[in-house]
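Researcher: Predict the fold of Probable sugar-binding periplasmic protein.
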Amino acid sequence: MPPTTRTRRGSLLVVAAAASVLLTSACSGAAAPSGGDAAAAPGKDDKLTLTVYSKFTDREYGVVTAGLNKLKAKFPNIEIKHEGNQDDDKLTQSIRGGNPPDVAISFYTDNLGAWCSTGSFQDLKPYIERDKIDLNQIPDAVRNYTEYQGKRCAMPMLADVYGMYYNTDMFAAKGITSPPKTMSELFEDTKKLTEFNPDGSIKVAGFLPSMPFYANQAQYWAQYFGAPFLGPDGKSDLATNPGWKAMFEFQKQLIDFYGGHEKVEKFKAGLGDEYSADHGFHKGKLAMIIDGEFRTAFLKDQAPDVKYQTAPFPVLDSMADHYGGGFTTGTIIAIPKGAKNPGAAWELIKQVTLDTDTLVEMANGLKNVPSTKASLTSPKLDLQPQFKTFLDIYDSGKLVANQTTPIGDAHLKAVNDFAEKWQAGSIPDLTAGLAKVDAQVNDELKQKGAGG
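Model: Structure tokens for Probable sugar-binding periplasmic protein follow.
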């Protein structure tokens, strides 16, 4: 099965947007978290049960449960009740109903702004200051996606990092000796690697520009074009940012190369699901893709004969010094408002977010990137050669994460919706179209910017 931390993508953007609305409406009356003292840690002999909600299921549930139970080495009388398959909607309902878990694990970082601004997740600053936690052991971008407007209401528990996968047999057959580093090189390599059938239809695509499709999502592409979703004033400014124009013009350039939107869509329709053995890269239908580190596990399991390598994803030619970085997101963990055992909950959070051995064991089991700098160099980390690329990206100092907002992922969905219309040729004026997206997003930010 796919790593469940990946269920944020694709059609579930709609689900997540609905969850964000529920978050804001359900918690609009919630008081802001108190700025009081941190709750005391339990005594070594105290007996209690910590309830944890997460979305993990099946094999991954077992990996995470083992990680949570590492706390028993320090607190042997604490029982961990790990309830899997609990999504953000169920978590919101439990907080609203006054019966939340002690610890909440969420896959969807884009809901963090709503969690923090409504007080649904407690402020962790008192705990961090009391225990003298050095947050510098976590990369800047990861710290950014676990806080909102300077308020730390969550900690990172493993990360996802995105980069390029490329088929080495296809590269060799076309005489390409290294992966592209710039968008112009990506376009040239795409032309070399693409094969057409006698009737002009696409047989093999060098790089498919369809969006949203697989990991072709605006939020994963944007940083490679220097295109932030929000400007310094906190408002959407896509129409005035040259990075967004460059990104969509590059997408259109690729669409035109393939012979137009209809040909691309017909080819795309024949590709398998993102997490199935019939994925287009697995089947040799796509020579290059953008994806997260977890794809290495899928290839090992579902397509072991595919010869491939990984690399950082290319950047806009004018941004060559940014090459080597990438987009990151990940799983977050927090103490919900109304948790019965907040002091013990914090001890558990420290265990699974800061203890190197715990992080490495979970990273090896889930095939995610461990989220502290120390864990990246642990000799216990399982380093498949293609996986190491993502550790290097993570440690590059060039990571970029989504900006947190009180509207969840509504701005991401708006841009992906625009991309779909743009590639279909139904947006005649790029700047005017982006300006409409700005107006839509800014209207939602204005309505919900105070957290509802």
